[in-house]
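Q: Cytochrome P450 family 8 subfamily B member 1, please. Structure only.
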Amino acid sequence: MVLWGLLLGALMVATVAYLCLQELLRQQRPKEPPLDKGSVPWLGHALAFRKNMFEFLKHMRAKHGDIFTVQLGGQYFTFVMDPLSFGPILKDTQRKLDFVEYAENLVLKVFGYRSVPGDYQMIHSASTKHLMGDGLEELNKAMLDSLSLVMLGPTGPSLDASSWREDGLFHFCYNILFKAGYLSLFGYTKDKEQDLLQAEELFVQFRKFDRLFPRFVYSLLGPREWLEVGRLQRLFHKTLSVEHNMEKYGISNWITYMLQYLREQGVAPAMQDKFNFMMLWASQGNTGPTSFWALLFLLKHPEAMRAVREEATQVLGEARLEAKQSFNFKVSALHRMPVLDSVMEETLRLGAAPTLLRVVNDDHSLKMASGQEYLLRSGDILALFPYLSVHMDPDIHSEPTTFKYDRFLTPSGSRKVDFYKAGKKIHHYTMPWGSGVSICPGRFLALSEMKLFVLLMVTHFDLELVDPDTPVPPVDPQRWGFGTTQPSHDVRFRYRLRLWSELCPGGRKPG
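A: Structure for Cytochrome P450 family 8 subfamily B member 1:
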């Protein structure tokens, strides 16, 4: 037994030594991008990258230009920073840049879900069928009902609901959108009060997982944190289990369609539970944080708030809500609100910072917009970070760090789609949802959820910052690269519900 232990130890040492030697010997080949391995063997620049990805990539671009390869924890990433060169990467007609392989490994690690052949295409098919057109309208109505339940209670607001309340804006937005989204997608029991309590407790656990998520992906958790992640995974697998789903009604057709596919493929119920956890995260991990940024920007820019409220009044009429009522308007009105659309697009430009990754499956030649060609090495990862290379490019977006609610509006009030870089029209002028094969399949649902929530807040509530002069908080540096950014600290605000009886003297309706 001792002998086997010694042999195994020797084998492990030899393997590690070989891998380190391979990394030390790697050199830039002719026509390859600039190579920056960092000063620490194997780790390379991993610590600086994980500390603040945004600042690290700014430094690397200033040092190397629009394309460079860096070593991060034994893996080599080639970042392309010129958006005019994104086309061949996102289209990839040669199919040498694989998104699916990286995504499958990530969801297995984070959610415990092991993909089956064809399920990536299945998710896109389900999203096309149920998150667009009539399917989206149906889910929007369900979301409006869920928002009414979460924001107003099972019996609607009472007269004392219009008193001022105070909360952290980030917590408020994340909490409400998570609970409403969860109930809309995964259904209800016959006890609405209990549903709300369960959704609240699930949100508490979701936030615990959310806070650990960036370091979990990078395998930087301490021993106790690894145990906590395991506990949280098991909790969500149990809560979202297909067994529990059988006791509910109102489960979305989107979720039902995907689970039916997995059953037909012979996927075990335990793995379906893990799939549900993955879909809960994918659908609810970014809507709350994005809505936080949207409302904060509106509160910090009164002219933007006025524009949104005026548009809402023109499209919906005066907001009317009486005691014991639920929110009620035609969700199709969301399609007639270009000002709100522009606000959300500008919010996503400033707040969404995903990383788009592709595994290079075979040696590949990439032609940049400049005409120069670079060789990409098989096994490396090709990466785009549109927040820095697109969203913050002053050539594409003037004053890129400034919130301009009408940035995506033409002088006539329609949606603006013409943006330029170096005098050339650019197709990818914002990329909050990714692009190409990795574009978020649930983007239409997520955007509708956020627009519904923001619209309800600005039309049915009075809201203000506790300290009007409080600055917009900086981004938590750990969140760069993981979808929508989150603030380094919360912002306190006050809100109160507007009831129709209070808008009219003596509780009488006009007319």
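A: Brief note, in case it's useful. The chain has 19 helices and 13 strands.
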